[in-house]
Amino acid sequence: MNEDRLRSALKNSLSGMDFPAARQQEVWRIIKGEKTMKPKKLSIILACLLIVLTIGTALGAALGVFGRLSSREITGDSAGRLALLEQEAPKLETSVSLYAPASSAPPAQPQTVYDQLLARQYERSFDLTVNQAYCDGNKLYFSYTLTTDGRKVWTGEGMPSGISEWMMQQPGRRYAEVWSHSEPERDKAIIHWLDSHESSWYAYENCDLGDGVDLADGRYCDILDGTAQWLDENTLYGFREVQLPADMAETDAINMELSLMYSATLFYQDAQGVFCANIRPAENRGILRLPVSIPRTGITQSLSGSAIHETYTAQADVRVSPIDLSGTVTLTCPVEWTEAADHFKGDVDYLECYKLVADGHVQRNLDVSLHVLAPGQLQSTLRFDLPVDTRSLVLRPVYFLSGEHPAEDIPLQ
């Protein structure tokens, strides 16, 4: 428990009461176990503790999806940006209901396991809410909540009937040796069932947003980051970070189309190995389209820098937003650098990436990728958490073999 947060909560909730600082400190010491409660003061202290607990619950409930995800282990390097987005992103709470299309074939009683799983996909319904969104013309971030009418699970022994082809297969291996599931409890259930039988299958339903978005003008945008977590069997919440085109028009809103993907996944395991099949309707391939309009609410600051060295030149173009710092460095360099990067040669000491030095503090690059644009031309991507102080920013090159080269730093202006 954070002491400053508790003090603020007590102050805000008890501002009209006689609750002096000394008394607040006494309650804090009791909560931490530093002071023994006296029987005659028990009722007062319990009342204060109840107030504090109520405040804590209210604060947690008031957090948006960005805020809730920022404290989850699954978000990893995204935690800092999510905490900032919780402060900067306006709440939208835009909801829509989506329904899987009906089968184009006459309904019939399912005869095989495959038929049974496929028939269920024609009955599914979803409610999608875009909870918060932030767009500055360079990046677009949004959080969402997806609810469904339950995710069914099926199990059986022996070879599942009706499966004509496998999406993936690992002959001679066990599920636990080669695959895993993002939901730990689901992973345990799959392993337990498959390993408890000589020949058996486990199937479950899944759904989530796709890995990209389509703009209204037809251009496709990649997802830079995102994650999702199930609250229960019916409710999924998550976020997406989208890279917008460099020539994005200056509009008040970004019109795009999201893809909701749904299907059933089946794992089968026997003495021959482990196999996986994905079952989805042929009519729409298990994809529902959803048009969404996101208001443009943020701005960015453009910075640049350049360097001319004996063996190469570099041009850096960076954008700083209230959420992060991102951009690229384009290198005109020896051809052997592009050949080494393109063919993963480990004996060439080429410039691999950049770190950020902000007011003397070094930050690692969260998106280390190097693209070969042409022979003798590379582009290095940049993505950093927003520094505490942005007044003095420098990009520091890191070579594949020799590491950091401070003498080749690029100041940003």
3D structure, described in words:
The radius of gyration is 27 Å and the shape is globular. The protein is an alpha+beta fold and 413 residues long. It has helices spanning 3-13, 21-31, 42-62, 65-70, 79-88, 113-121, 175-178, 184-195, 335-343, and strands at residues 91-99, 125-135, 139-148, 153-157, 168-171, 200-209, 212-215, 220-230, 235-243, 253-270, 273-279, 287-295, 301-308, 313-320, 324-332, 351-358, 361-363, 370-374, 377-385, 393-399, 403-404, 410-411. A hairpin with a 3-residue loop joins strand 2 and strand 3. The two termini are 41 Å apart. It contains 9 helices and 22 strands. The chain has 2 domains: 28-295, bacillus anthracis domain (Immunoglobulin-like, Sandwich); 301-411, Immunoglobulin-like (Sandwich), CATH 2.60.40.1640. Helix 1 crosses helix 3. The strands form 3 sheets. Strands 1, 2, 3, 4, 5, 6, 7, 8, 9, 10, 11 and 12 form a 12-stranded antiparallel beta sheet that branches.
